[in-house]
Amino acid sequence: MNSTLPMQLQQVPPRQGALWVRRGFQVFGKQPLAISGLFAAFVFGVFVLSLLPLLGPVLLLAVLPLVSLGFMLASRRVLEGQLPTPKVFIEPLRAGRPRQRALLQLGVVYAVCSLAIIWLSDTVDGGALDALMQALGDPKAGTEAVQQQLADPRLEAGLALRFGLATLLSVPFWHAPALTHWGGQGAAQSLFSSTLACWRNKGAFLVFGAVWAGLVLGFALIANLVFGLLGQPQLVALAAMPASLLLSTIFYASLYFSFADCFLTPVSDTPSTPQELP
Which distant-in-sequence residues (6+ apart) come within 8 Å of 86 by Cβ? Predict the structure, then answer.
């Protein structure tokens, strides 16, 4: 859909953040295979790009805004009673030239900012995180080597800087791809509008993040308890992989609802709007 839709910034109550999560689960429940297939395609794309030296990681960072928009399109398709396909990831690139240019600009800016965060964090921790990852991935490295890397005081500072700056970067880019696609906004305007929307609805986004953190921690606690009682604590790591993939998939499916609530979308454009979900 390439026509420009009238958008109006709205303020929602904090409890709406929990509703975004629930609606993500509902959309996934309506089309679990299709949504899972989209996430599998995304993971495969990550694998392919990771094989390309130097250019691959940069391209991966640059396409992330397009990926988030693709999942928003997929959720919207489900609400409209349609089956989402991997075409949602390339559909925005078939829009008019102004929208294409804005999306490309967003990708470049996101990649440059992400690389700057990585460089700055590596400078602060002095390579402590890389050393830890190497120790974790080395079967010959014992527990003592891992503990030694974890005890490095630079690691905590580097991780705090990484997560802090990554969170700040997500604010202007949260709604920006959708605003360029559905709102016809330019790159700079969409980044500003997204930042303003996140700030005005910070209560809802804090609840949104808290609910997702609670789900992750809740799974970890339950898995440790269950497998501990069964005498198989080593299975916790095995169960964590499919659980993390499932939660990540549903997280992406929930992104559309934060956008739809923060910006007014005409009901006539969406036969089954988020507000109509039970």
Answer: 37, 38, 41
**Rounded Cα distance, 158 and 153, in Å:** 9
Asked if residue 277 has pLDDT above 50, the reply is: no
> Would you say 176 and 64 are in contact if contact means Cβ atoms under 8 Å apart?
no
User: Residue 3 has what pLDDT?
Assistant: 57
Cα Rg, the chain, nearest whole Å: 20
Residue 181 makes CB contacts below 8 A (sequence gap 6+) with 69, 73, 92, 95, 99, 103
> Any bridge partners for residue 9, and if so which?
263
250 closest CA partner among 93, 27, 76: 27
> Residue 227 and residue 238: Cα distance in Å, rounded?
11
Residue type, 42: F
| Residue whose pair of structure tokens reads 């440059």 in the numeric block | 112
Distance CA(150)–CA(147), nearest Å, equals 5
Single pTM value for the model: 0.85
Helix axes 128-137, 97-125, angle to 10 degrees: 90
Name which of 62, 168, 73, 54 is nearest 105 in CA terms: 62
Beta-ladder partners of 263: 9
